[in-house]
Amino acid sequence: MENSRTDVTPVVVAAAQGSEEAWYEIVERYTPLLIGVLLRFRLSQAELQDLAQTVWLRLVEHLDTLREPRALPMWIITTAQREARRSMRESARCHLQDPTDERWSSSMATFDEPDADMERADRNAALLEGLSYLTSRQRELLMLLAQDPPLSYAEISTRTGVPVGAIGPTRARALERLRRTPAIQSLTTPSPAPVPGSGERRRS
Questions:
Q1: Maximum CA extent, the chain
Q2: Is a pLDDT exceeding 60 seen at residue 192?
Q3: Taking the complete model, does pTM exceed 0.90, yes or no?
Q4: Between vectors from CA 133 to CA 127 and to CA 137, what angle results, nearest 5°?
Q5: Domain 135-186, CATH 1.10.10 — does that match?
Q6: Residue 20 parent element (H or E)
Q7: Confidence class of residue 95 from pLDDT cuts 50, 70 and 90?
Q8: 121, 78 contact by CB (below 8 A)
Q9: Mean pLDDT value of segment 130-155
Q10: Fewer CB within 10 Å, N side or C side of the chain?
Q11: Pick from 198, 41, 187, 49: nearest CA to 125
Q12: Which fold has domain 1-87+120-132?
């Protein structure tokens, strides 16, 4: 379904109609985003896997009711955060927590920064939406280049089939294309300044 990469809508519609190919494409495309959100909650590997499966199950249940398929990335982010917080609350009720424990402190910090969470969620959703406009090779190359610890160009070349000497130019073209996508443009374009006198009218 490479010809549908520029718009998630056909994929969501096909998956809602029972297409396994479309469903697997959704999982492949959005698993990095889902895992990235869950990793911020310092979960164990088992908890992370369980919650990821829960989010996918929720999506199966609501796939045919999504009013705006292009909002799927934000739906995944919001659902993952909600499920992770629910899991943490249930765990906190079952186990005494030590406030000096780093894992506890880091986890609780996620409840105190809703604005920061929303900003990160917006950036993640925009980035994922922007990546969907790239070709599969460009998208794979950028994700491999972002690995930590970094991969060697030789290993990236083996995985992608891009010659070592072409990785730099291909990366530059992919980033330029990513910057021109509507999702990224919406993040980098400043909001228009308020028109003087357009605020609340002064009272006499």
A1: 73
A2: no
A3: no
A4: 100
A5: yes
A6: helix 20-39
A7: very low
A8: yes
A9: 82
A10: C
A11: 187
A12: Rna Polymerase Sigma Factor; Chain: A (1.10.1740)
Query: What residues contact 143, with CB distance under 8 A and at least 6 apart?
Result: 32, 131
pLDDT at 189: 56
- Neighbouring C-alpha atoms within 13 Å toward the C-beta of 114: 1
Residues of the chain with CATH 1.10.1740.10: 1-87+120-132
Residue with the two structure tokens 């990785």 = 167
Q: Which residues contact 162 (CB under 8 A, 6 or more apart)?
A: 137, 141, 156, 170
Written as six digits, the tokens of 103 are 């894992």
Contact 51, 40 (CB under 8 A): no
pLDDT-derived band at 131, boundaries 50, 70, 90: confident
Tokens matching residue 189: 């374009």
Q: Which of 53, 103, 105 is nearest to 79 (CA)?
A: 53
Nearest Cα to 172, choosing from 184, 182, 180, 161?
180
Residue 166: pLDDT band (50, 70, 90) is: very high
